[in-house]
Amino acid sequence: MEVSKTRRLTYLLGAVIVAILLTGGWFAFQRVGLPAGAAGIGGATIENRAPGPLTQRSKTALIASTGWVEPEHGLISIAISPIAGRPPVIARLLVAEGSRVKRGQVLAELNSLPDLQASIRQAEARVDVSEQRVAQAKAGARPGDVSVMNAESARLEAERKAAQTDLARKEQLLKLDYVPLVQVEAARLRVEQSTHLIEETRQKLRSLTELRSSDFEVAEAELRAAKADLEHMRVNLASATVRAPADGRVLRVIAQVGEAVGPAGLLELAPAGRMAVIAEVYETDAPRLRVGQKARITGEVLAGPVTGTVTWISPQIEQQQSPSLDPAAYSEGRVFKVRVIVDQGELLENRIHAKVNVLITP
Length: 362
Prior knowledge:
The chain starts with a helix and ends with a strand. The protein contains five helices and 16 strands. The longest helix is centred in the middle third of the chain and has 33 residues, at 143-175. The protein is rod-shaped. By secondary structure, the chain is α+β, with helices and mostly antiparallel strands. Mean pLDDT is 80; it is low at 21-56. The protein has helices spanning 2-32, 113-139, 143-175, 181-209, 213-239; strands spanning 40-41, 44-45, 63-71, 76-78, 90-93, 100-101, 106-110, 241-243, 248-253, 267-271, 275-282, 294-298, 306-313, 318-319, 334-342, 355-360.
């Protein structure tokens, strides 16, 4: 019985020793890395890693990383805002995926376009009416109206004179008791009425011939408001026609005819210009990076290697997005983004978003 226990303990101890040896060998393999010449990208050899921290790398070794292809200034997502509280719905789509467009070219039209065009015509009509009111306020009364009022004033003046003559005659007759007092009072009332009518006519004539500043200011305020409404309508009308902000190529159409444009936008546009590769370099390699370094770019989607130059290095550490090239490198996914401008950009125009390998020469 004791022999059986001893044998089992011996087997268990042996298994533990084998496990420790195997685990130690695996970690040693991870720290040492691949043999020289066995871990290359596009024919270039990545540095061997001797046991020790990652910061103890050769200053002359190539900096290996992965990245993706995109235009120099990134991609443009064409967004559309709601117009007058209405969601933007596509009525006409004038481009397709892969279409090349010019700056200012119409990409799509919204279903609110006809209504906005009608609103523009109404706003223009209101501006015309307001301008006529301002011109009328400046010009004052029309000559014909002034002539009519002058004639009316002259007629009333003649009537008053006749009433005054009749009143004087009846007052003389009253003294001789030839007419009753009531006729004299009636004649006096006609004189007073004629005097009031003449005064009213003179006031109307004065209001016609005088330019009142308050009327002119009100007319001008109405004109300014009408013009502001017209400008607002024109802005809305321009928003109902979606135009290309730059020369480029349509990569992806997100919203189709009849669909409302959501937060993702209408389409994705790759602007024309130089092509770049965004490489993700481990933070442990950051001290060896500098603008102007040369880079070699390879990948399964490329017919052959291309070259480029480092033009920008991110000032902050970010989380890694692309898969690592070197499983022996451990940095918890903390990387610096580096922009490499490609020398022969036309070779990558049709490879946007493609994953590539990047070797940067220190």
